Amino acid sequence: MVVLRTMFHDSQIAEKVQLGRDKMSYMMLFGIAPYYKSELDKTLHNTNCIVVGFDESLNKTTKKQQMDLNVRFWDEEKKEVVTRYMTSMFLGRSRATDLHAAFKEGLGNIPLNKLLQVSMDGPNVNWSFLRELKMDFEHGEERLLDLGSCGLHILHGAFKEGVRCSGWNVTKYLRGIYHIFKDVPARRALFTSYSGSAVYPLKFCAHRWLENINVAQRAVEITPHIRKFVEGVQNDKIEPKSDSYVDVVECLKDPLLLAKLTFFKSVAAEVEPFLREFQTDNPMVPFLYNNLSQMARSILGRFMQIDQLKNITQVTIEEINEAKNHLPMKEIVLGFETRKVLKNSSKLTQKQILQFRLECKGFLKALILKLMKRSPLTYPVTKAASSLDPSVIDSDQKLAGKRFEKLLTILMDFGRISGASADLALKQYLKLVGSNKSNKFAYYDRKNERLDHFWKGLLSGDEFMELFTIVKMICCLSHGNANLERGFSINAECLFENMREESVVAKRQIYDAVFHAGEIASIQISNQLIQRVRNSHSLYIEDKERRKKEDLASNASKMMKRQREAEAKSLEIKRSKILENAQKEAESLQEKIALLKSTVL
């Protein structure tokens, strides 16, 4: 209170403000957060279709899996696709049945038929969850559209698989050179002394493999200095006693180490632009097909014959594995930097170079096979949605028309549009691409303009109503889980010791509302919000009373349980004593019987 008076000495309102220890907490938990949650629920109930994404991460405060749910939909107020935080569910276990129950609970009262797509990453448990969820749609007309799992995760996993199948020790080396000098000033000083360099290794990221381009580049640059460091400590007999040092020494014995590092960097640079561009909440699904096709074609072109790459979606796994479709070993595309390293390595034999090229081919083949297995390229809707890519329309209107017709067929088959709406949408699409507006497709720049803004500008008015409905639906589709991944960082900033689960959710909901508004100054203070805040104290008191009653009931139940356990234990002891006494009496009687029998004889 004194602080507020000091800060706002000219405000009569601030002078009257009183903040108790828990006031801000209950205002958020029972006033502000429920208001914004109810506003989001109202918006979602007035929306025709939504896309829900989910991901789980360990909450270190509650010691449970926190399952965050985000929702994508067309915001009529902003006239664009938005991604909003819905809620979080806290799970003890993460089986498919647990995810399914938590997901449906998180949706609340939102009808399942509004759910157009589920966005997720690719663990097997998520695919099992998706199969269970699809069963909920069996008796309805609507079905879930499927674009596979997050394309960003697939790429990272595919690259990791390529490195694994190559059998190289590149990752061991990148980790080792970083950990040798991490938090050890004495070794850093020795490194500078022996090598004359003050440039140190960068940290290798085990979860985002394709973000290690700079790490690999730094390793290439300082490997000669690492060799000098190792030679120096060996000569002076002061070698570090660590596993990282042992790994680095082992890796340095590999004459192809630099060639492997440069190839690693070359392949990562091949796919990194896709990740950089698609880590956004903007509508990107119509661009997926062309971008993934070009990237896959580029990777395949490094080890396969060109005549096999006419249509990337028609290249089968069998054709990729067929050796006759591969380039000769000497024609495998290694990259200029890798070729330079091999050229400058005079000690390498032809056998070693041939084996290296074979391993490079194995790297590329494993990467592309993993990518093709669950890539969005394998789903028909990905190719059909490219009909809304302005570059496709500009380059070939006939091809774009065929793909749009396929898109309408898919949406109709999945119960998302009627046949009459599909007919109208197709007529409007063909009319648009053949009109004088079609020259705008040639000048579209997706780096500077969102796709939903572009189409909204073209389809203003009732003339293209059905077509605009299709556009909004496809723009809502999710291309990845980047938004959810960013949410984990926000979760970490929200947490503090002994924080309740409800408080985590409330903070996220308020943060999301402010972020959606743009800034604090843009928040509209409505009468409903004021009333919610006014009522928050009474709700807080009610919650405290409820918790007290629950605690009393719980304590009474525990007390009753302890009493019953104590009584049962007492009775068990009594029973044991009775049995023991009975046994003694039985033995005594048996002795008397035996004595009587012996006397008779």
Find the count of extended strands (DSSP E, 2+ residues). Answer: 4
Report the order of strands and helices.
HHHEEEHEHHHHHHHHHHHHHHHHHHHH
Tell me the overall shape.
globular
Portion of residues in beta strands equals 5-15%
What is the average of the pLDDT values? 86
How many domains make up the coordinates? 5
- Helical run tally: 24
Name the poorly predicted regions. none
Estimated radius of gyration: 33 Å
Main β-sheet, spatial strand arrangement: 3-2-1-4
Cα-to-Cα separation, first versus last residue: 105 Å
What's the helical proportion of residues?
A: 55-70%
State the gist of this model:
By secondary structure, the protein is of the alpha+beta class. It has helices at 2-7, 12-16, 23-45, 96-107, 124-135, 151-166, 170-181, 185-195, 213-235, 243-252, 257-278, 285-300, 317-321, 336-344, 350-374, 380-385, 390-395, 397-413, 419-433, 451-458, 465-476, 482-494, 501-517, 527-600; strands at 50-59, 64-75, 80-91, 115-119.
